[in-house]
Amino acid sequence: MAWFKSAEGSVTPAAETGVLLVNLGTPDAPTYGAIRRFLGAFLSDRRVVEACPAYWYPILYGLVLTARPLKTRELYREIWTPEGSPLLVGSMRLAAGLQGEFAASAGVRVELAMTYGEPSIRAAIERLQGARIAKLIVLPLYPQYSATTTGSVFDRVTAELRRWRRVPSLSFVSDYHVEPVYIQALATSVQEIWAKHGRSHLVLSNHGIPVKYVEAGDPYRAQVAATSKAVAKALGLGTDEYSESFQSRFGPTPWITPYTDERLAELARAGVARVTVVTPSFAIDCLETLEEIGIRSRAAFLAAGGREFNLVPALNDSPAHVATLLAVLRRAGL
């Protein structure tokens, strides 16, 4: 193993491989200013909103970033914890759990970064550069590929690597949507809820994207379908025992359907009294799972006539999630 001298003068073993986990990001606090900064960075990304900037930016920096933080602030306050943002806290614990799988002599260093906000991709890349890594594996925490998420991570990581004199060997995980360990982890998490509350109709709710992105060649919709079918097979479900849906739509552009809120209402009106909802595209519980699904979608289902709504937690920092990421990293050449 290589060794290097730190800025403080101590001798530290150099990591041979750096693992960069990347999640979307979160506001620093449930405040208007913090949410406005986060949304400004997120919604100005051309991967996320592909509209012409001359058209989009006046809307974004006018109406959207003036009004939306006011509404979103109240939603974040409902799910904020004493430790901070659930997405950040959960992501940090997951990274720590993954690092714990590698002994100090293994020469693997795990860093966490967010595409928007802190800890930044730039800072994480600089820490890995300081560790003198020879190989970098980038693992976005998005099981299904979309240009809006995984593609944006690639853009930002490669932009930072342009500053390196010696670029490390690079492996980029584009997706793990049918990784067997991931599918089994999802299926097991559903079974744990059913063991407590009984078996019920399963709704697999995923983050949506605009229809035009799929028509342009984004594989996200097809990969979500493959994940849903694999989970249903692992659970032994017939086609009438589960539903696939999409949430978190934004703006007037048509997004892929069916929409989760509408599908839940349809199920309730059709006489489905009990549902279990799992969110396969979310690695860590966040605003979209805890508030949008856990609070608003629950209320909508009950208001439409449903009687029982059970939400399956995201894989978060569970041992099964750590095992999933280890399997994905091994496939990437770790």
Task: Summarize the topology.
Layout: E1 3-5, E2 11-13, E3 17-25, H1 32-43, H2 53-79, H3 86-99, E4 108-116, H4 121-130, E5 135-140, H5 147-161, E6 169-172, H6 180-197, E7 201-207, H7 211-215, H8 220-235, E8 242-247, H9 260-269, E9 274-278, H10 287-303, E10 308-311, H11 319-331
Parallel strand pairs: 3-4, 3-5, 5-6, 7-8, 7-9, 9-10
Antiparallel strand pairs: 1-2
Helix pairs in contact: 1-2, 6-8, 6-11, 9-10
Task: Supply the key terms.
334 residues, alpha/beta, Rossmann fold, 4-stranded parallel β-sheet, 11 helices, 47% helix, globular, disordered N terminus
Q: From the 3D coordinates, which CATH architecture of one domain would you assign?
A: 3-Layer(aba) Sandwich
Helicity level: 40-55%
Largest sheet: 4 strands, parallel
Q: Which regions are unreliable across 5 or more consecutive residues at pLDDT < 50?
A: 1-12
Distance between the termini: 16 Å
Whole-angstrom Rg: 21 Å
Strand order of the largest sheet: 4-3-5-6
Shape: globular
Structural class from helices and strands? alpha/beta
In the CATH hierarchy, the third-tier topology of one domain is known as Rossmann fold
- The number of strands is 10
Order of secondary-structure elements: EEEHHHEHEHEHEHHEHEHEH
Strand % is 15-25%
CATH top level of one domain? Alpha Beta
> What is the count of helical runs?
11
What's the rounded overall pLDDT mean?
Answer: 94
Architecture overview:
By secondary structure, the protein is an alpha/beta fold. Among the domains are: 32-79; 180-311, Rossmann fold (3-Layer(aba) Sandwich), CATH 3.40.50. It contains eleven helices and ten strands. The strands form three sheets. Strands 4-3-5-6 form a four-stranded parallel β-sheet, sandwiched between helices. Strands 8-7-9-10 form a four-stranded parallel β-sheet, sandwiched between helices. Strand 1 and strand 2 (11-13) form a beta hairpin. Helix 1 crosses helix 2 (53-79) and helix 6 (180-197) crosses helix 8 (220-235). The relative contact order is 0.14.
